[in-house]
Amino acid sequence: MTKTKFEKIRNWEYWPSLMFYVPNLPYAFYLAIRAKHPAFFSAANPAIKSSGNGTESKFKTIQLVPEKYRPKSILIKPNSEFKTVINELKIQKITFPLIAKPDIGFRGLLVKKINTESELEQYLINYPIDIIIQEFLLHENECGIFYHRNPNKDKGYISSITLKKFLTVTGDGKSTLRELITNDDRASMYLNLLEKIHATNLKTIPEIGKIIKLTVIGNHSKGTQFINGNHLISKELEETFDHLSNSINGWYYGRVDLKYNSFENLENGTDFKVLEINGIIAEPTHIYDSKKFSYFQALKAIRTHWESLFQIAIINHKTNKVPYKSTKKFILEMFELKNYISSIKKFQ
Questions:
Q1: Closest CA to 248 of 70, 2, 86, 65
Q2: DSSP conformation class of 117
Q3: Which ranges of the chain would DSSP assign to H, the alpha helix?
Q4: Alpha carbon distances (Å) from 227 to 184, 221, 232, 254
Q5: Could you tell me the domains of the chain?
Q6: Secondary structure (3-state) at 133
């Protein structure tokens, strides 16, 4: 067994998602019995298709966010003429580099930073699906904030802040980039991915003290380290998210992934951009800080969030008359999502 495989087994941070949800299934069934409907959670966020079960369009969802808080974005349909794509980029004033990602997807699947027109053209040829093209934001920091709000109240609360630390290595003036990666405990876990991203630079020798940012996509699957930032939860930050939630009619539960420069400006709502709003399948990703949490504490945190989801969905259904999605339709959507994800994984 290689060192990398052993580390992935030893450290629960790298365990497959089934390890976090299968043990919690009995609690999910318990909530469904209490609600008297297997798909009760579909009433939580009426503004988003199926409340955000993963089948929703990320492009349509980001359009719910007030313009000042969202990055410039366009949606590209499969087999669109490339000249049309470039013209739309010019109209929206989106320049290179930019971010391209599937309109339906998660965990960083096929998300890529694109540097040139030729790279973008090849990307669109390789992935003939609905693609979002988004401006590449230059904000220094990224985090995920989990917010809950009773639909009949103006104020909610934040339960999770995940600070994101991107993979980096520091040059020593004698080691190649590949050697720096393989000698770094965390970076070496993502060697196959990083070899693809930095294929043309692996043999270069970075100068002493130079910090090389290995990834720019804030997903755990891309090597980004999730750090518990719950100590940063404050009344001011919750007021900012109350304002955001109240400006989106029908969003009450989920995680917002965003970029910012200073946390003070994020806190007072003056400088941040929302990358995505995730609904009912969102995770409180601070739990993946394995230095601060145990595996069993992570499982408990997921159950706590599900209880909040239950309360919000029940209020929406009983008080605000938001219908539950039929169980059959919800299951069909999940099978469609599974088939879709399997199909686009073949593109990798």
A1: 65
A2: H
A3: 3-10, 18-21, 25-35, 58-62, 82-92, 117-126, 177-182, 191-197, 235-246, 263-267, 295-318, 327-345
A4: 18, 15, 12, 18
A5: 36-71+138-166+215-348 (3.30.470.20), 72-136 (3.30.1490.20), 168-214 (no CATH)
A6: strand
Q: Quick: pLDDT tens for 109-142.
A: 889 999 999 999 999 999 999 999 999 999 999 9
List C-alpha distances in Å: 98 to 52, 74, 119, 301, 348.
25, 11, 11, 35, 19
Give the pair of three-digit tokens for residue 261. 């420069």
Mean pLDDT check: name the lowest of 59-68, 78-87, 316-325, 337-346.
337-346
Give the number of C-alpha atoms closer than 13 A to the C-alpha of residue 314, restricted to the C-beta side: 13
Q: pLDDT at position 341, please?
A: 87
User: Other C-beta atoms within 10 Å of 39: how many?
Assistant: 21
d(CA 50, CA 329): 10
